[in-house]
Amino acid sequence: MSRRTETTQSEHDRVIEAWARRVSERFGKQVEVSTNPGNLKRFQVGHDDDPRFPDVLVWRSDSADGRDGTAELVAEVETADSLNEGEVAEWAAYGKLPAPFHLVVPAGAEEEAIRLVKKKAVRVSQLWSYQVVAGEVIFRQYLELPALE
Fold first, then answer.
1. Domain range summary for the chain, segments of one domain joined by +
2. Are 123 and 95 in contact (CB under 8 A)?
3. What confidence tens digit (pLDDT) does each residue in 110-125 have?
4. Integer angstrom CA distances of residue 108 from 41, 62, 66, 71, 105
C-alpha cells in the first residue's frame, strides 16, 4: 500500500465518499454501499485467509433473493501519489472477484493507469477519472470493457 500525504489522503477519502454516493444513487435501495477510507478496515471481500478491503464495496443485503452478502461492485480510488506498481497486486485481486472492478484515478492519470493495468493483465471493468472543482468531485468514465482487455 502506498503512503499518501495528509493532503492526498484527505482527497482520497473525499473521493471515496463521493463515489459511494454516486453508486448508491445508481443502485438505489437494492444494495448497501460500504466504504473503507483511510486505514479503516470495516468491510471485506475475498476469503477470510486473504481478506481485501476495497475503498468502496457495493453488496446485496436482501436475503429474500438468496444473494445476501454478494458483492455487486468493488471500486478502488487512487491519488497521484498512489498510482504506481505497488498498488497493482491489490487491483489484480479485485479483478479476480466475480463482481465488476472499477478503478478511479485523478484526471490526467488515465493513460498511466491503463499502462499499469495492461502491464500486469489486471481485469478492470471500468476506468473512471475524477477531479475536484470548487470543492465538488466530478467523475468521468474514461473506458469500459472490452476496451481495457
1. 6-144
2. yes
3. 999 999 999 989 999 9
4. 29, 39, 41, 29, 8
Peptide bond into 146 cis (omega under 30): yes
CA 137/CA 18 separation, integer angstroms: 7
Q: pLDDT tens for residues 13-46?
A: 999 999 999 999 988 777 889 999 988 888 888 7
Consecutive H or E run containing 130: strand 126-133
pTM above 0.85, yes or no: yes
3-state secondary structure of 30: helix
Beta bridge partners of 85: none
> Over the range 74-109, which residues count as b (16 or more CB within 10 Å of their CB) and which as e?
bbbbbbebbbeeebbebbbbbbebebbbbbbbbeeb
Q: List Cβ neighbours of 136 (8 Å cut-off, separation of 6 or more).
A: none
β-pair type (136-144, 56-60): unpaired
CATH 3.40.50 fits 6-144, yes or no: no
Measured between alpha carbons, how far is residue 72 from residues 37, 62, 119, 137, 140 in Å? 19, 12, 26, 23, 20
